[in-house]
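During the second half of the funding period, the structural biology subgroup turned its attention to how the target accommodates small molecules. The most pressing case was protoporphyrin IX containing FE, which had performed well in the primary screen but for which no bound structure existed. We therefore specified the complex as follows and requested a full 3D prediction, including the ligand pose.
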Amino acid sequence: MRQEGYNFSVEVVDFGTNALQVPRLLPSMMSQYSAGQELPATPFEVNSGLTLRVAERFVRRLSDAGADAMLVFNPVGADIARGWGVRRTVGRDYLLDQPVMLGSQRIGPDLSNIGNRRSDVNWHLVHLFQPRKVVEDSVMPSYAYLFEKREVRGEGDPGALRYEGQLVTDNQGRQVMPRAAAKDLVAYLMSLRLDEPIFEAPGLVLESAEAMEVQNSERKVAESQ
Ligand code: HEM
């Protein structure tokens, strides 16, 4: 998954004890907030799409006013906007793969983060049974042998596959029940997650004002030496 850049946002987690100071600062940081307006419920986003310098300044001003403010690192890019993940994928993500599934030629998408990207078990079952039912023009083969077919009785059995409220049937009009192997395969797909922030590709990294203060004072000490 590619990432084209990053930016920062600022969140207020708590107003602190000085209830008057923070509302005074907000109109200059938050376009949706004007003086005298009712305060948003915490936690809330003050601003986003900021450079580090501006975001740090906002956090510092808010924490000087007694608020608990956070700097949030946001990876951005078309793949992230599509919801494919929260950060770019890097070599280390595939380090322990055995066999290495990524490959150099492939037809289907990388499933290493599918558990985050698609968490609807039913969607996966229908997709395995009949990919074209959920993805128009899909070239993925059907894994129909992972499903048991039975004649429909009444409204269909409770465990039978349904999609958008309708019973899913095979080409002979029989209802389909996921076998244990289909359920296990989907459970495995759900377990595939690749979203931990790592050094070379930080994801959702929340930095508290205190952590920033420690870093800043360490930086000052280093600079003065
Ligand atoms: C048991 C084996 C397989 C499993 C568990 C599996 C699973 C999946 C899943 C979960 C997706 C959805 C990905 C997403 O939403 O981004 C997907 C999509 C896709 N898969 Fe597979 N797949 C399998 C085999 C294959 C094979 C053999 C092919 C190609 C010949 C293939 C081609 C595709 C394609 C083209 C897509 C894009 C969406 C679509 O067309 O349905 N898959 N697959």
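Two results from this model are relevant to the next phase. Residues 160 and 177 are 5 Å apart (CA to CA). The longest strand covers residues 5-14.
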